[in-house]
Amino acid sequence: MALNAKQERFVEEYLVDLNATQAAIRAGYSEKTAYSMGQRLLKHVEVAQLLADAQAKRSERVQVDADWVLTRLAAEATADLADILDDAGAIKPVSDWPVIWRQGLVAGFEVQENEVDGVKMGQTVKVKLSDRIKRIELIGKHVNVQAFRDQVHQTGAVTLNVTPEDAEL
Questions:
Q1: Smallest Cα–Cα separation from 71: which of 135, 134, 149?
Q2: What's the rounded Cα separation, in Å, for the pair 77 and 100?
Q3: Residue 21 above 80 pLDDT?
Q4: Domain total of the chain
Q5: Residues 60, 107: one domain?
Q6: Which of 16, 25, 58, 91 is deepest in the core (most CB within 10 A)?
Q7: How far apart are alpha carbons 37 and 23 in whole angstroms?
Q8: What range defines the domain where residue 55 resides?
Q9: Which has more confidence, 59 or 85?
Q10: Is 57 a member of any domain?
């Protein structure tokens, strides 16, 4: 069975932000039914196959796959803060930082000029680092080490205490 124009448009729109409800709306489905329609479309065999094909093509085109993600996360999780400091412990100019630091390990920084009587006496630099713990969690999930999963034990065994009186019921 071939997809209709709305279903094909849904696939294109879903790839924009991976939001099924918004993709359904942008594809022309009613806002009232967009949530349920989006969920149904994701389960539709032909839609799911077209989505999988499109995502595979995109991964190939941009050369980003699970290996790339894991390698990047590992490099970011193990990057050494000393790489952005000079021998005196001051922060190096950004142009001297290793690429891994310039591409996402720093969430932001603030430079404040320190002056005394109008004369520049130095500066204070505040660096806000991005969340390394989140990277480690993502690595743990990716390699399926179950390091961050709540543990629930179920035995499946049920014990019934039946008295002779209960047995007659």
A1: 135
A2: 10
A3: yes
A4: 2
A5: no
A6: 25
A7: 10
A8: 5-64
A9: 85
A10: yes
